[in-house]
Design goal:
This protein has about 775 residues and is α+β, with helices and mostly antiparallel strands. The chain has 22 helices and 19 strands. The protein has 5 domains: about 160 residues, no CATH class; about 190 residues, no CATH class; about 140 residues, C8orf32 fold, CATH 3.10.620; about 60 residues, no CATH class; about 80 residues, no CATH class.
Length: about 775
């Protein structure tokens, strides 16, 4: 034991002696450089806070500034004790990160940002060297990148611009520090009085307002150009999906008051057991009343279409999706004469997820139609009911709850409301709308489909059927398929009936569809879906009303669809055996179908820029460039998009992409070399013959590994040449250099032809030696 202690003590003494004998650390002495690096980190922290709605800035920025001041004052000390405590603190931060990561497996971006901020705060207390400041610069850049991926609005843009403004002078000072040059304020020093030009050159500062402004302008021009041309993929290319909730939704389950649909705008206080609403005037489920100005009335188990009024526009949701579409929320099966309801509201299946993942496996009816996988990510910006919007035929759902519900109509519901800040992701197998195949669809409906989706009040059934047949009889061409009938009837309702803003309240015994078709000849926008659905049912075509959100307005700067409460509306879904449900929109001013899979927002910024330019030039010029755009540019862009999809499709595509990247890199390198050579010869051609000869000689020896230093005079270069080359070669260098000096500074004419012959002989001797 005594020998062991002696050996440990000896090792400790040797370790201390090595530390003491180590050379002092070369510190970074530029205060401006340190301050700019600190500002970069601060901007990164603030940008992350704004994007993620966190409050790390309140503690991280003050501590980071204190650490920066401390490290400046202690930059000449070894700070062994401080380093020891910082190492322990970093281990603690790592443990904290792993714990948080275990609870955020689906979206670790914010957890990573918190780790970087904590490490930067600790790191700021020990920044003696330039490379330590370089680590801080990288952390600031990563934080800005995380903020960019989390941000769903353009509020991130000003911080990106501020980061750029600070980063450019920081990079300039970092580069000069690497070269060992003085960062700023280089003064001209000479025993002679300098000229004005020399003074101006000597007092030049790389971080002057003028030089930095020029660099920022160039960077912005190139950056915005690249940003405009780059594809804007509105969906996720990697399947690591964000899931988040400000509430403890993970512990929420169905039961009691969480059983039904909870719409904050429609009197959830009066829900009975199992979520059924009490039949009274307060909940607006029947009779006359006004709609809530924030929440859409259709997000309920029972919708009353006799309500009047309008909502005030408000952003409620942001959606990132690989394709636009109708964000479907609820489908209804039973028409009440005043609106719609879900017959079996309490009868739904509960699906539980795995304990360690947020992924739910959904089993929706399959279709024989070709489908496309579309990934959508939804973020609630305001409180919403506990229904889960999605594109049609969802296959997987990533949702922050222990369980979800799926009813007989394939509606998805959550045990908690979609509170502000809640994020979830849906993977859907969206079927294409192949008109040729849908025209071949049969009327082989199952008994369940007939019983559920052909229901119509008997007192209006015959009257509505006659009206529908009357509309269909207006065409001379016979209908060969159900799909053609649905199309024609949808278009007819859209054209023959009008939206009535001043629609009066209906009597209690008055049927909504009957009033729409025969009395008012129109109604509110959602009434068109109701009328079309009942007309189709009267013809024996299964149909239902579905409510949800329109796609909203696509923001090409963020890649999100911005959805408002006023984007919510109802449309008609028609069932085609073996193909499933397809939507038809009879509202005037809307497209006949919701947005399709073929619509693409990938190059929307470039398209908007082109539309702006085309509006400013004469029509013939615009038409000419439009041909170039549609035939050449769009074709080339489509080729690039197809190539990217192939490369990202699998292992073979990845290998092909790597080979293409290597090949293009080689061609680019060769091309750049040729461009440099061409530029050199063009510059050389503009010089006088003597200057050309001298530059050619320097170029030859530079390629041989003997360059002339910029600080060397021609005669100093000659003296060095006698030490590096044989006597014969050095004499030629001397002769050409002396002639150049005589011509350049003495204005003496030289025999350039003779000197060029000597130069050619010199080049041949160099080749022989090689």
């Amino acid at each position: 034991m005594k020998n062991t202690l002696t050996q440990s003590s000896s090792l400790y003494q040797q370790f201390r002696q090595q530390i003491k004998s180590a050379p002092p650390v070369k510190t970074e002495e530029s205060v401006i450089f340190r301050t700019l690096v600190q500002c970069l980190v601060i901007v990164g922290i603030i940008a992350t806070d704004i994007a993620a709605r966190t409050q790390m800035s309140f503690w991280a920025i003050p501590l980071s500034i204190i650490g920066g001041v401390w490290s400046w004052n202690r930059r000449q000390h070894r700070n062994i004790t401080l380093k020891f405590f910082l190492a322990i603190a970093m281990l603690g931060v790592l443990c904290f990160f792993l714990i948080n990561l275990a609870g955020s497996l689906n979206d670790s971006r914010l957890v990573l940002a918190e780790l970087l901020v904590q490490l930067q705060v600790l790191h700021s207390f020990d920044l003696p060297k330039r490379k330590d400041l370089g680590y801080s610069m990288v952390i600031g850049l990563i934080l800005l990148g995380v903020a960019g991926t989390i941000s769903q609005t353009v509020a991130f843009a000003p911080w990106l611009l501020l980061f750029l403004i600070i980063a450019i002078p920081t990079l300039v000072l970092d580069y000069r520090s690497r070269l060992g040059l003085d960062a700023i304020d280089r003064q001209f020093k000479s025993p002679f009085k300098p000229s004005k030009k020399a003074k101006k050159k000597a007092n030049y500062s790389p971080v002057s307002l003028k030089s930095i402004s020029v660099l920022i302008a160039i960077t912005l021009v190139f950056g915005l150009s690249i940003f405009t041309l780059m594809p804007r993929f509105p969906g996720y290319q990697l399947q690591s999906f964000p899931v988040d909730s400000p509430l403890d939704a993970d512990s929420q389950k169905f039961g009691g008051q969480n059983q039904g649909i909870m719409n904050p705008g429609y009197d959830n206080k009066n829900q009975g057991e199992g979520g059924n609403r009490q039949e009274n005037n307060n909940n607006k489920s029947e009779g006359k009343g006004e709609v809530d100005d924030t929440y859409y009335y259709g997000f309920n188990t029972k919708i009353n279409q006799k309500l009047r009024g309008q909502m005030k526009p408000k952003i409620v949701m942001r959606v990132r999706s690989q394709s636009p579409g109708f964000w479907k929320a609820l489908s209804f099966d039973h028409y009440t004469g005043q609106g719609w309801e879900i017959t079996n509201n309490e009868d739904f299946d509960t699906i539980k997820r795995d304990r360690w993942a947020y992924k739910f496996f959904l089993r929706f009816p399959s279709t024989i139609m070709k489908t496309k996988e579309v990934i959508q990510s939804y973020t609630a910006v305001a409180d919403l009911p506990n229904i889960i919007p999605s594109l049609s035929v969802p296959r997987h759902l990533y949702f922050p709850a222990q369980e979800i519900g799926v009813d007989d109509l394939d509606n998805l519901r959550s045990p908690v409301g979609l509170v502000e800040g809640l994020t979830y992701t849906v993977v859907s197998d969206v079927p294409y709308r192949d008109r040729t195949k849908l025209q071949k669809s049969t009327q082989d409906y199952s008994d369940k489909i007939k019983a559920t989706y052909l229901d119509i009040p008997p007192e209006i059934a015959e009257k509505v059927r006659e009206k529908a047949e009357q509309i269909l009889s207006k065409t001379e061409k016979p209908f060969n398929s159900i799909y053609e009938k649905v199309l024609f009837l949808t278009q007819a309702v859209k054209q023959q009936y009008q939206i009535r803003e001043d629609l009066p309240f209906l009597d209690e015994s008055e049927d909504l569809v009957e009033s729409f078709l025969f009395k008012q000849e129109g109604g509110n926008p959602d009434h068109f879906a109701t009328a079309l659905t009942i007309m189709l049912r009267s013809l024996g075509i299964p149909a239902r009303v579905t409510v949800g959100f329109g796609q909203g307005k696509f923001n090409p700067l963020t890649g999100f669809y911005v959805v408002k409460n006023t984007d919510a509306y109802a449309l008609t879904e028609v069932y085609f055996p073996y193909y499933g449900w397809y939507a038809f929109d009879a509202i005037p001013g809307h497209d006949l179908f919701p947005s399709s899979l073929e619509e693409d927002q990938t190059f929307s910024v470039l398209k908007q820029f082109w539309n702006l330019i085309a509006g400013l030039v004469p029509s013939p010029v615009a038409n000419f460039f439009n041909i170039i755009w549609t035939k050449i540019i769009v074709g080339f862009i489509s080729f690039l998009v197809g190539l990217w999809r192939f490369i990202s499709s699998g292992l073979v595509g990845t290998l092909v992409g790597l080979l293409l990247a290597v090949g293009l890199g080689l061609l680019g390198w060769l091309g750049w070399g040729q461009l440099k050579k061409l530029g050199y010869y063009r510059r050389l051609a503009k010089l006088p013959p003597m200057a050309q000869l001298y530059e050619e000689m320097l170029k030859v020896f530079k390629t041989k590994g003997y360059p002339k230093h910029p600080a060397q005079t021609p005669l100093e270069y000659v003296n060095v040449s006698y030490q590096q080359h044989p006597q014969e070669q050095a004499e030629v260098i001397d002769e050409i250099s002396s002639a150049y000096v005589s011509w350049r500074y003495g204005n003496n004419d030289q025999n350039v032809d003779y000197l060029r012959q000597k130069f050619k002989a010199l080049v041949k001797s160099l080749k022989r030696n090689n």
